[in-house]
User: Fold these one by one.
Assistant:
Number 1:
Amino acid sequence: MNTPKLRVICASVLCAIFVVGLFAGTVSPYPYAKQFRERPNAAPSSTHLLGTDSLGRDLFARLIYGTRVSLLLAPAAALLATLLAGIFGGLAGLVGGWCEKFILAATDLSMAIPLLFVLLALRALLPLDISPVLSVIATFALLGLLGWPSSLRVVWAATKNLRNCDFLLLARATGCGRWRMIVRHLLPNLRPVLFAQFWISIPVFVLTEATLSMLGLGVIEPLPSWGNLLRGLEDISAVTANPWRLTPLFLLALVVICFQLILPAQEETA
Amino acid sequence: MPSPLKNLALTILLALAVPVRAQTGGELHFCLHGEPKTFNPILVDDEASENVRYLTGGVLIRLNRQTQALEPALSTSWKISRDRRTITFHLRKGIHFSDGTPFSSEDVAHTMRLLMDPETHSPTGDAFRSGEGTAQVQTPASDVAVITFPAPIAGLERLFDQVAVLSAHSPKKEMAVLGPFYVADYKAGSYVLLQKNPNYWRHDAQGHALPYIDSVRLDIQRNRDIELLRFRRGELQLINRLDAEQFERLQRENPAVTRNAGTGLDAEELWFNQSPAAPLPASKKSWFGMTEFRKAISMAINREDLCRVVYAGYAKPAYGPVSPSNHFWFNAHLEDPKYDPQGALRLLAQAGFRLDNDTLKDRAGNRVEFTVVTNSGNAAREKIATMIQQDLSQVGIKVNVVTLDFPSLIERMTRTFDYEACILGLVNTDLDPNGQMNVWLSSGENHQWNPSQKSPATAWEAEIDKVMREQATAPTEKERKAKFDRVQQIAAEQQPFIYLINKDVLLAVSPSVGGVAPVVLEPWGLWNVDTLRLGPAPELGAQE
């Protein structure tokens, strides 16, 4: 199979998953929180396509609602992080001097602080009576606000390379203004890097949310997300006994692979 | 055979001999779930050290974990004075410590002095500190010890179950023991090896020296999944507490290795924050302070479902502070509140609440909504909270569930009081209600719904204070029981803690271990360690 065809397939798969997530309310056979207490840990059947979880909740319903949560908010968080990385990384690379030193020092400091502990502390500061929906938004907003340092370094390095390029020197020599130079010459050349950082960040944030949910943070009950669905995999022997519980993991892996396979296409087309 | 080949064959034979010996050679293997902090029995303050103390320490009086009655151990008899301040022990004669040092009343005096010395900071000694002054120990004879405390102590004789006697003269100090085993080797982070005490005083009915087992290896293993894996591989012979899911799976695989000791003493409970210092809206403080509100919440929770769904049926609904497994102190006259959402709604209506389009509102029109916090990482509690969320939605109450890391949760519970309701577990290791004094007295730090009160906030808390103090000084156990029954009655009427479930005590025991009779009290499957045997299971079953 040639690469463009594979990319089309991956894009189609991602679109299909997005659409199902978006219309979860229509596709789902049951509300995601409804507990069928007579049928906990049920095997897949015509009533429950993917079986039920330990509280008797339909896993198919939870998976598609979880898809909506994870796949809509992770790109939003990735966009925020890439935007912050683009602004400050570009500024550092372009201006140089004390500004560059300050921004890079702040980035190094941010990278040295374990993200998990910062999130734990910030979550503890949030009010307790926050609704599940707001909690999800807050979690992804925090991920977006704190997940920029590694992208910033990449953007900074790319900008610094571009700054000394001949075409920028020529533009500067011909009297091109600073803003025009940024908008017309710098940003189009940075686009592949920014796109790459955006696409890479999405699966990273999905996985970080999964980690947070496994620690009891992030998305709170009864709202599902891929993260809290993956908590069912903590116990290996339970998974061996109920292998259909691996479905969220397969879906996550599929999405991450699709994103990775689409990524080179973005770099090439840009 | 050439020599190198001989050596190789010998090595292989020796290597093969190890598992055979592990099965039949008398070494019991099980895990400690943490590093023992001390081997000094009077300084014990953690579960791992407590296990070592139980296996190595000799005590004057032993609580029989099966009958829950006290039995003579190093003392043949004891007598308590009428004022409950003095206890006189008559000691066994001809007993020696593990290093051969003779045992006498001087050792009892030495132990009590260390135990009661404020400089020692003994957690075990704290239970004996009944009043100002120190305990006096007299030794009129080598086999008689008389201990006098400055003030009466309720349940005095029971406290001696925790006091391992130390030698006053042995050069090995606390490493010389009177229990069935002594500490032979210890590698930090890895294992504690106990060897049979050759001078152990107990013998079986045929006169054979106990314990039957030669040694016990306690591997230090915090990860419960790895512990279970090792048990499955045959590397361990006993797991003391399994969670319900692990137990059920193990039962499906091999029912012969699973043992259910019955309903345990520990309870899971829900309570509302009634502290006046809590930064909560006045409406919520008013709901949480209403007896009808708390009772209605209790009635709207389906405890049977909690037991069946969260604990796979290995739990019982809990209705009070004392588990039915605590034979003496359980108040059997308490009424079992049934799951009754309609009854809950009637009770709420009496208290001024009304159901408006499936939403419960108070007199002022505020929607009844609160947040339940619990500690993250405890799957069972998170499930309980989620099920309560659905149960209470049936009576129009919106519940938010929030999990917090333990330090944050404790900070909110004890310092900022910034929470509305909480689900946590009450760990009960002591049968005697005196162990719960800090929970029931309104001045207690563990009086969780409204801790450290200067004076009781309500009339019923004042009554609990009075009755708890009276039971602590009552002259007979019967009178103490009557008083504590009243405390249980008030707790059931007022529901300051909404007790949810009592978990079963679930164990895994290899068929190669004979004589195991699991109990609901610590150390569960090991309480009769001196009569456990190792060997092929069927023969052992016949012997026992």
Number 2:
Amino acid sequence: MNAVVRLMLRDARVLNRGLVALQLILPLFFLFVASFPLTSLIAPFQVGGQAISYQRFLATGLIAQTTMTGSLIGGTLLFTDRRHGMFGQILVGPATRADYATSKMLSSAAIGLSGAVVVAAFGLPFTYGVHPTLPGAALALGAVLAGAFFFAGLSVILASVFRSLEAFEGTFNLLLILLTFVSSSLYPLSAVPSGLRGLMLLNPLTYDVDLLRMGILGFGSPYAPWEALALSVECVLVFVGAVAALRRTARLEAA
Amino acid sequence: MLAVETRSLSRSFGAVDAVTEVTIQVEEGEVFGFLGPNGAGKTTTIRMLTTALPPSSGEARVLGMDVRTDGSRLRPQIGVVQQGESCEFSSTVEDAMDIYGMLWDVPRREREERARELLETFQLEAHREKRVNELSLGLRRRLQVAREFIHPMRLLFLDEPTVGLDPMARRGTLEMIKGRAREGMTVFLTTQNLDEAERLCDRVAVINHGRIVTADTPAGLKRRFGGLRAVKVSVESGDRGVLAARMREVAGVSGVEEEPTGEVVAWTSDPKRAFDEIIELEGQAGLRFATVTVREPSLEQAFINLIEREETGS
């Protein structure tokens, strides 16, 4: 069996399943509690030349947002390995550092994707009446996968950098809030002031959610092609960064 | 073939030289002890040999492979019990063992069988369903040592494996190491327990301040650095005071002590001659001996003498 697969199977066995389940509470709360009063307060609005209900808009945003949260949670796998000494132990075993980095990114992405599947199962009925095309579905899937991979890489970098649990958790929670609220997952880019829009366009979650909406709902941001390019480039950069961060951490911990 | 071969192996951390020009050779099938005081450079050397840490300079080949360039080929052939704790805290003991075997790609049936044997050998059976985070530090250490034997290997690095183990677990660990060594596995071991090193190791090297001080067999080390030997006489009848006085007159005896156990001990650098002359004292002044024995210096004493000599430069 391939070393990356073995490491991923290990991740699945040692994963804190409670933490993974917990990531679903917020999006499901938004879907089934907050979205109803918010939809009654927010009239259908125009995005990309289409009128859309807030519930439909929100459902797609929450899928991307859950992908991000789950993938970032994957970083705790690495952090736990470091705290419990398994990081150093595994690196003197048969797996290479690249195997370990790849497995952590794939495990993290898998956690994000599994959360996205659950939220999609509950959220997509809100898009009833929309018939995505095959290329649209492929684009949505690609967006979710790329988003999961990007945030998984980010989680590996974060978990590599921090030494204390408090600093890791504090930064992790702050990042979640910033990435969620400074993105187009909960409101459209057109609804925010231009200064804030600029910030939102720096957020990879914005690219992810815009591409997902384009795939499922058939509309998206005018910046979509650029967003797709940026997300792809960022995925590559974050993978390189994650491997470098892991190598550095391995060196520091062995010293 | 040499299992470990280093030439001028060095590692610095900034301005601190942790390991300096270490040159050692370990034969395949040998149990090699790497001894030294705290902070001497033992763990740093093991980390370089197990590819966890690149050397700053020098060369190191393990099982014929360069630790700098052949890490991915080398690691599947070695086992490493690190000094620091490393456990799957959220798993049960049984699961932790199985997961470790899986990481090493040991087939499921084989690892189940091995895990059963190891849990028994290391007396962890009663804890098999407990979560690792519920175990005491000693039991976790036992698990950490035990699981390393679940996969095949040609060379095992053990960095102070018996620290925190109770005597039973220590005995199990030493038996396991001896057994695997008899089957041909090479063992590279660091330990602060010199009694353990004496019982286990074919050869030992002593490192101090990052430099190799000497390498020899435990017997050779004791002979060279053990200092004075003790000739102990257990008196059956006669005056112990008289015996002590006569023993002080024996050539080569530098001191005599009457021990609370009733034995009289003479310290000498020439135990053979002292033994012969002390035996001749029997019958004089009504002395009858129960036993006369020569006590060899321990490896611990030799180690202490050697390190003290190094520190004082004498």
